[in-house]
Design a protein that fits this description.
globular, eight-stranded mixed beta sheet, alpha/beta, two-stranded antiparallel sheet, about 35% strand, about 190 residues, binds guanosine-5'-monophosphate
């Protein structure tokens, strides 16, 4: 999506450790118009599917998922990060290695809100090594719901998540795929899609 690529080029900042900062428009200050265009684009891509739930993970996925979900007319469910959990049977839970914070979180989702046979679209801000996505997919599987596909705002194509998950047959639609980025020069190259 050209609009998103242009915005990343203009306002994205490449940090050491392969981190792209987009907090001036995506995950701290939020450009609502841009998020609307992204929602429209995912709707164009997935409009032939029935979507019962849009699933994301807190915190930065929520705004993106909420705006996208309006196009699908479906509720948003966000998986919660918990410091520690008492598994009392009311929640699905999984573990996610955090890319940006270098630690493992327990992630939970109430069984009340995701049911067998429901069609799920996952939306998230970044795809890097795929840990967050694997955790969300695990929750969908535990609920015996159906994963229709995944909408990612920014995929870092030089990290393994996208390749590995597509090889497993998961439909991943990333609006921008960063092919390479250089913390020294600030240069960002995108994969042609
Ligand atoms: P993964 O689990 O695929 O390795 O990483 C995905 C999660 O880590 C995303 O939900 C996002 O919050 C965070 N993340 C990964 N890479 C970046 C990055 O380059 N910049 C920012 N801002 N977040 C990232």
């Amino acid at each position: 999506m050209l609009l998103l690529e242009e915005r990343i080029r203009k306002d994205g900042r490449v940090k050491t450790g392969n981190v792209l900062k987009v907090d001036s428009f995506l995950n701290h200050q939020i450009d609502v118009k841009l998020l609307n265009r992204m929602g429209e684009e995912w709707y164009r891509i997935f409009k032939d599917e029935r979507i019962d739930k849009v699933l994301t993970i807190e915190a930065s996925g929520i705004a993106i998922a909420v705006i996208a979900a309006q196009y699908f007319g479906a509720p948003v469910l966000f998986a919660k990060k918990a410091q520690s959990i008492n598994i009392d049977g009311d929640v699905y839970s999984t573990k996610v290695q955090s890319y940006t914070h270098n630690r493992i979180y327990d992630v939970i989702l109430s069984k009340k809100f995701l049911h067998e046979g429901e069609n799920v679209l996952i939306i998230d801000d970044f795809l890097a090594n795929g840990c967050a996505l694997e955790g969300l997919i695990d929750l969908v599987d535990q609920a015996k719901a159906n994963l229709v596909g995944v909408g990612i705002a920014i995929e870092k194509g030089f990290q393994k998540g996208g390749r590995e998950l597509r090889e497993k047959g998961i439909r991943i639609e990333s609006l921008a795929i960063v092919e390479s980025m250089d913390a020294a020069t600030g240069e960002i190259k995108f994969r042609k899609q």
